[in-house]
UniProtKB/TrEMBL annotation:
InterPro entries: DUF922. This is DUF922 domain-containing protein.
Length: 168
């Protein structure tokens, strides 16, 4: 567990699975969901400039889970729903890996800052679209057959990009 700007954050790890204790937000009883995972990608970069030209750059990309913004309804909580919420976090990690893969292909130039910001927006838009599609197909964990298909699909996609995984 880490903190960013005094906000609790859990960074994705291959060796850690979410537990209900990680969900510290107040449950929203105005919606039908049994639980909500709030996760996202954060990134930072630095550039090295020589003679007014960018000669190199470094980046950091993290798949984060936000405990204070994630919640569950105790009376509806079960292992199936927890696995659904974990898969949302795993999807965030998948897109962090895709982001790292795309960054690896970039060459330093004077537009690198804009390129990174544009790439970040594209990755986050794609991440949101897949999160929404997962919920739509699985009917928010109700369709167990689709849920299983998604678990297998995300596991395969993560394996394809294993070289870009978050490091513990």
């Amino acid at each position: 567990m880490s903190f960013q700007n005094d906000k609790e954050v859990r960074t994705w790890s291959e060796n850690y699975k979410l537990t209900w204790e990680d969900f510290k937000g107040k449950a929203n009883y105005n919606v039908g969901s049994a639980a909500v995972t709030t996760s996202g990608i954060s990134f930072g970069y630095s550039v090295k400039v020589k003679n007014n030209n960018v000669v190199s750059f470094t980046t950091e990309v993290f798949a984060n889970f936000y405990p204070q913004k994630s919640w569950y309804k105790k009376e509806l909580a079960n292992n199936h729903i927890l696995k659904h919420e974990q898969l949302h976090f795993d999807i965030t990690e998948l897109y962090a890996r895709k982001f790292r893969q795309q960054i690896e292909m970039l060459e330093p130039d004077n537009e690198i800052k804009n390129t990174l910001k544009t790439l970040n927006k594209i990755i986050n838009d794609e991440l949101k679209a897949l999160q929404d599609l997962f919920d739509e197909h699985s009917n928010h964990s109700i369709n167990k057959e689709e849920e299983l298909k998604w678990h297998l699909f995300i596991k395969e996609e993560l394996a394809k990009l294993a070289q870009y995984k978050s490091v513990d």
